[in-house]
């Protein structure tokens, strides 16, 4: 897939809307073709309204899975995803709310099991970040929000999901290239992404005897609403240009990895951190 390294300078208020981005991210709406690799499975995807989560939700549906789409309050984007899931012939539950709230994490799992009948695949993808040039510029509540949204949510979701997971179930955490090579202006975010990779590795060992697989994906720069809503406009314009491939990734380019890790084809893949970075090494 080709793509332009440079995009128009732009900003949004967080968490950002996919529908207001220029150009719109490619989440596979017209390109992703499924092959029943997740037939009969039920997936819960956080941050499923836009970006990587949107691409994953669409791909999962076209691979045969019913999907609960968790999102904050971007109703228009989420409803659009819901239409794609239903067009693939699958059931969808749209679940707004803040994943930094432990009670909401438990409610997401409850709704998934009660309304869709199971929970086979948990994708913990929702994230928050903000660019800060100095540690002194990071407000205390911003640190708490970043930890709560990115890391604590994974703990609470996994804890709530555990009783419902079965042999063959898959949990996937969205880590980042920042887990290995942290951007100093994204220090709180980078710290959470390293912790997510570590937590996934722990859970893979803890749950392995039950046949539950846990992995993380480490994306590099990917064109999602998180970028124009959390970075200065001039950085948005050149976002991803410094990768070996010379551009940011599109969300659809991440979807096949999430599909593989959720599928029975990856039956011996657990405890891994899969890099999708445009050439930046993750050790």
Describe the structure.
The structure is a single chain. The chain is of the alpha/beta class and 283 residues long. The protein has one domain (36-226, 257-276): NAD(P)-binding Rossmann-like Domain (Rossmann fold, 3-Layer(aba) Sandwich), CATH 3.40.50.720. It is built from 8 helices and 7 strands. It has helices at 51-62, 75-87, 102-116, 140-161, 187-207, 226-230, 233-237, 255-262; strands at residues 42-46, 66-71, 92-96, 121-124, 170-174, 213-219, 273-276. The protein has a 7-stranded parallel β-sheet with strand order 3-2-1-4-5-6-7, sandwiched between helices. Helix 1 links the parallel strand 1 (42-46) and strand 2. The protein is globular, with a radius of gyration of 17 Å. GO terms for molecular function: oxidoreductase activity, acting on CH-OH group of donors. Pfam families: adh_short_C2. Keywords: Oxidoreductase. Belongs to the short-chain dehydrogenases/reductases (SDR) family.
Tell me briefly what this model is:
Residues 21-33 have a biased composition (Basic and acidic residues). With 283 residues, the chain is α/β, with parallel strands linked by helices.
What attributes does this structure have?
Rossmann fold, alpha/beta, seven-stranded parallel β-sheet, 13% strand, 283 residues
Summarize the SSE layout with pairings.
Layout: E1 42-46, H1 51-62, E2 66-71, H2 75-87, E3 92-96, H3 102-116, E4 121-124, H4 140-161, E5 170-174, H5 187-207, E6 213-219, H6 226-230, H7 233-237, H8 255-262, E7 273-276
Parallel strand pairs: 1-2, 1-4, 2-3, 4-5, 5-6, 6-7
Helix pairs in contact: 1-2, 1-8, 3-4, 4-5
Biased composition (Basic and acidic residues): 21-33
Pfam families: adh_short_C2
Keywords: Oxidoreductase
């Amino acid at each position: 897939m080709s793509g332009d390294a440079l995009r128009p300078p732009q900003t949004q208020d967080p968490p950002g809307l996919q529908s207001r981005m220029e150009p719109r991210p490619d989440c596979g709406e017209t390109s992703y073709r499924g092959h029943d690799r997740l037939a009969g499975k039920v997936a819960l995807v956080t941050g499923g309204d836009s970006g990587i989560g949107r691409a994953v939700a669409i791909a999962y549906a076209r691979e045969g899975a019913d999907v609960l789409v968790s999102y904050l309050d971007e109703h228009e984007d989420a409803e659009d995803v819901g239409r794609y899931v239903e067009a693939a012939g699958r059931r969808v539950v749209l679940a707004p709310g803040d994943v930094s709230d432990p009670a909401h994490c438990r409610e997401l799992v409850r709704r998934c099991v009660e309304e869709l009948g199971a929970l086979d695949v948990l994708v913990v993808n929702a994230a928050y970040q903000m660019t800060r040039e100095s540690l002194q510029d990071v407000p205390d509540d911003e640190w708490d929000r970043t930890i709560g949204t990115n890391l604590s949510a994974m703990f609470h979701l996994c804890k709530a999901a555990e009783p419902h997971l079965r042999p063959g179930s898959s949990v996937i955490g969205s880590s980042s290239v920042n887990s290995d090579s942290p951007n100093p202006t994204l220090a709180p975010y980078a710290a959470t992404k390293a912790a997510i990779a570590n937590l996934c590795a722990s859970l893979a060992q803890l749950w392995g005897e039950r046949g539950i697989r846990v992995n993380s994906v480490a994306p590099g720069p990917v064109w999602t609403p998180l970028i124009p809503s959390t970075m200065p406009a001039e950085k948005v314009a050149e976002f991803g240009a410094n990768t070996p491939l010379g551009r940011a990734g599109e969300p659809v380019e991440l979807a096949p990895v999430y599909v593989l890790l959720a599928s029975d084809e990856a039956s011996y893949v657990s405890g891994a951190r899969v890099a999708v970075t445009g050439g930046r090494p993750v050790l």
